[in-house]
Amino acid sequence: MSLNENLSLGLPHTTRLRLEELDVVFVDLDDTIVEYRTACKKAFREVTKLLPELGNEDVERLEIDYQLLRSENLPKLFYNVISPEEERKERLDMVLRTRDIHLEDSLLELMNKVFNDSFWKNRRASDGAVEFLEMCRVKSVPVTVITNGDREMQEKSLEVARLKTLVESVITPMRLEEMKPNSSLFERALRVTASRKEHTVMIGDSWEYDVVGSLKAGIKPIWVNRSKLRTPPDSGVEWVTSLSDLTQNMKGGDKNV
User: 241, 242, 186: which is closest to 219 by C-alpha?
Assistant: First the structure.
């Protein structure tokens, strides 16, 4: 699907926009402008080096299980039943226990430290993120991160990835029911940034959270579809395989979003 194809969902913003015509660009953080899954996989590789019990476990499967458990823990995180640090340790323990690996607390602490050290070491800007965000700054188009993640951790992620100065603001849910893909988080972001939805785009890697959520709010989505998955028939949703592709598209031709 061409990036320059228009949305065909009956939304009020079916005409193409130039970057400089936008009030704001909304972006997701994890695996959109900052590497997340890659950092997790590398972290699991370090853990498997120290835990021969993991044998030939596929790090991709370990990472997938780790992320699925996060969804289950979101309510506890949101209501401060557990801290982000404790939650990650609990998740690692659960991933190991499903493989019949039960560690004493001291060893689990060590494995969690190994995991976290590697994770943050490999937390870096996604391909093309710096160039895209810098282009937005040159065009005087503010960028706002919309994320379900913990604000403190996401701020740290931006700093570690050296993107903090390129992002205007970070918006996170104020209540559990506001989390993406609910439209209320996007609607609040529009109010906070004083932006018009017909002059806004949402860029993200998750179809379920970023694309569906922004469509519910009447905001044009651009899907970062690295795996080149098929979009639902007649969705009309525009996609790119990386932010580098998006930047190059905007630099060439009529520079439309």
Answer: 186
Residue 154: HSE in the Cβ half-sphere, 13 Å Cα cutoff = 21
211 DSSP 8-state letter:
I
Cβ neighbours for 141, distance < 8 A, ≥ 6 positions apart: 19, 20, 22, 23, 24, 25
Q: Is omega for the bond preceding 181 within 30 degrees of 0, making it cis?
A: yes
Report strand pairing: 24-27 vs 143-146. Answer: parallel
Across the chain, the runs of DSSP E, i.e. the strands, are 24-27, 143-146, 169-171, 200-204, 220-224, 238-240
User: pTM (2 decimals)?
Assistant: 0.89
pLDDT surpasses 90 at 252? no
**DSSP bridge partners of 18:** 256
Alpha-carbon distance of 194 to 152, in angstroms, equals: 24
| CA gap 83, 86 in Å, rounded | 5
pLDDT in tens, 86-114: 999 999 999 999 999 999 999 999 999 99
Which CATH superfamily groups domain 19-35+124-251?
HAD superfamily/HAD-like (3.40.50.1000)
Distances (CA, A) of 104 to 93, 97, 109, 128: 10, 12, 9, 42
Task: Give the model confidence (pLDDT) of 224-248 as tens digits.
Answer: 999 988 888 778 899 999 999 999 8
